[in-house]
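Quick one - first record:
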Amino acid sequence: MFSYGRKLGGETHIREACNLGRPARNGNYRSVDRIRLDASGSNLIYNHMVVEDSDPLNRLFRALADATRRDILRRTLVGAVSVSTLAADYDMSFAAVQKHVAVLESAGLVSKLHHGRERLVQAEPDGLARARAALDQLEELWRHRITALDELFSKEP
């Protein structure tokens, strides 16, 4: 089943392909992929989970935006966990969990360790510290703006 987006002035538009109701070979339901139609009408399919962003802060918050990735991060803060152990607790394929781990790794939130044949995933607290620092800067900026507005509105006309 396809749902089509609006055309934006004859330019590129996006539609989502939903394969809900048609399970994949492993029995799991497929996620939503985005299909971009360019001006020539040819389809360029990409998985929204693996699109790269050059800004480290965007990668960091995009990684934290997904509930599964936040759960993986929470579980790896306690100690190193194998990817197969992580995958066993989610209703998705092993490859999908590996992609989630790769997104977290590219954001600097986890690192992979090689222990024999296993790949262990371990949280990187410095990545969370970068997220906290960015949020603190935004909070300070907005508190300063709100204080300035309060002062402006409290003056007598």
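second record:
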Amino acid sequence: MAKVLVLYYSSYGHIEQMADAIAEGARAGGAEVDIRRVAETAPPEVVAAAHFKTDTAHPEIEGPDALTKYDAIIVGTPTRYGRMASQMAAFWDTTGGVWWGGGWAAANNKVKTFQCPTDNSDNLTPAAGIFANLYTTTAGGGSPQGSVFAPNYPALGRTNYAANAGYLGRGFPYAGPYYPDSRTTILAIADGTSNTLGFGEWLGGAETGSRDYVGSWMGVGAVPTAWGLGPTGYWHQFASKHPGALLFGFCDGSVRPVKKGASANVFIFASGAADGVVVDLDQL
């Protein structure tokens, strides 16, 4: 029997009602279900003044180690300025040690929609390792960095997709919508969501032959566009096994092909969220 956690935060009880309904459905399907809420982080005077709902039948989550008991985790949270509520984010910020140590069973799940059918990264043993996160840093003029597991430990679920960091991420021109601790809202994408790259295909190495890296869906992070779309497929480049093109999801939700031989400058301009450069997407 699968063991499922429904984890939620609710200021006024609406998300709590949804959590109860989801748990009921999961139980009807044969799962064993626990419902937990994350801790309230707002000051007591704010809770009182805003009339938050404080009476609940569900206990707080016991801590990040409790996540290791579950086969699946369903999360419910309201949004604040385009991102999850700070109470929920505060909890997830404490969970790094759990999945980093390989103890989080849910992170080992294979999710079919996170992988491109042209690649089979779940069955690859990379030469160098499995990316837990990928990011760029202002140190050294914008260096790609990352945290890597050994090639076969733990058995994290893989992905062929990564977020767009822009040219070199935060602190550089043409910054994309995603980078470590990004707080980018839809309204902040001033170049227009239909003109801005959101996510793209990523391999972690060359298109053919041995693969340097693969990515975990838990935290592959964001890839810079500074190195363009070269045919070599370095680990810090977007890459795909599709002939002639990569698929990118734009910030408006559309999915479009981008030619592997596209202009590097146009590609970089399209990766910036608020650079003010008008891009002819036909050049991609």
